[in-house]
Amino acid sequence: MRKTLAALVLLAAPATAHAAPCTGPICNFDTLAPYFARLAMAGDARGLPPVHIVQIGDSHTAGDALTGAWRDLLQARWGNGGRGVLPPGRPYDGYLTRGITAAMSPDWSIAATFGKGAAESPGQRRPPLGLASYSLTALRPGAAMGLTADPAMPFDRVILCAMAGPTAGTLAVRIGAGNEQRLDFAADIVTPRCQTIRTATVQSVLRVTALDRPVTITSWATFHDDGGVAVSNLGVVGAQLMHFGRTDDAVIAEELTAYTPDLIVLAFGTNEGFAPRFDAAAYEVTLRAQIDRIRTLAGAVPILLLGAPDALSRNPALRTNAPGVLVGCSGGLFAPPALGDVRAVQRKVAGDLDIAFWDWQARMGGQCTAARWVASDPPRMRPDHVHFRTPGGVILARLLQDDLDHAMEGQ
């Protein structure tokens, strides 16, 4: 039944007027022209909001290796627009941040699209989730969370997104040593609401405290409105694209209006490729549906789809997780067959829907590159042959930006 439904959805999905087969390591970068136009003015946009890139993905995005290095590169060239959007508080054990330090009291309930905090059964109700894929609900008055920016990442604009409603309470927000401001989320109906606070001078400390009734926070962000660039990395460890489908349309629409991204990057695929069984038809339906959903909610914001990077395993259970020829590498390592199928689907959908595509694996160096990157000095990948270290992230950011630069020069 699943494959029959998938086939019907694919037949019904309209191709864009300019759709063309996606070949080579990059394709459809011409669709990024609005982003390139904004970026070209970023260095001279004094007093204006930064160019904003939002990357949504799995542990590669959560770990901030590629996005962190890309942020450093862009901000060094065009100016620092702040840290951007983050999940509220510290939503999971091992939560990594670059550019800021986050803290919170234990008085919060955590909901997530995947992993700890995810709904345990289809009928279990959880607070709505937005772009960050996490939400935190205050369990009692006095529940607090805070953010301290590194000296190089100050901010003069704070956005806090939460759920308003008949039972929602008030949050006290203190920025730096300034006066406490109160954000009231009481409303007649349950609805997402993003509120903005601006400061006359740049600050580095933010503290949020629940005062009375519970409030569910879906995301928060810090920006420096003096041109430049902000890169938001919103990733969930272990997640697949289908898990992003558990987020709420109304929350995402409100957050997109508040955060005004100029480019949305989708970076899923590794966990699909490492699944015990992979259904290419079902994945294609999911990919098409989520791209269509983002287009509907974000309007004309360009989308860049990153193909799954090279990754290897020694787990024998993954040798047959999809049909096809097994790619063996040195030391008993191999690429799970499903990983190649994931990339093929991503490439096909990018061509059909006329969105930009970047072949992460090809730009790394092709098949079995992960083994060489683990063995390099310094190591570019972790010993699991899946995740990246900082030197690898720096190389990837340069490769990606080189391709974007060439496309931008050709506009």
Walk me through the structure.
The chain has 411 residues and is α+β, with helices and mostly antiparallel strands. The protein is 30% helix and 25% strand. It has helices spanning 2-12, 33-40, 59-62, 65-78, 241-244, 249-259, 270-273, 280-298, 337-353, 360-364, 369-375, 390-409, and strands at residues 26-27, 51-57, 84-86, 100-104, 108-112, 134-138, 144-149, 155-164, 170-175, 181-184, 191-203, 205-210, 216-223, 229-235, 263-267, 303-306, 327-328, 334-335, 356-358. The strands form four sheets. It has a six-stranded mixed sheet, with helices on both faces. α1 packs across α8 (280-298), α4 crosses α12 and α8 crosses α9 (337-353). Mean pLDDT is 93; it is low at 1-16.
Short description:
This protein is an alpha+beta fold and 411 residues long. It contains twelve helices and 19 strands.
What's the number of helices? 12
Tell me the structural class. alpha+beta
Mean pLDDT: 93
Rounded radius of gyration (Å): 21 Å
| Uncertain runs | 1-16
**What percent of residues adopt helix (DSSP H or I)?**
25-40%
Q: What is the end-to-end distance?
A: 45 Å
- Biggest sheet details: 6 strands, mixed
Q: Biggest sheet: strands side by side, in what order?
A: 1-19-16-15-2-14
Per the principal axes of the C-alpha atoms, what is the gross shape? globular
Quote the beta fraction. 25-35%
What's the count of strands?
19
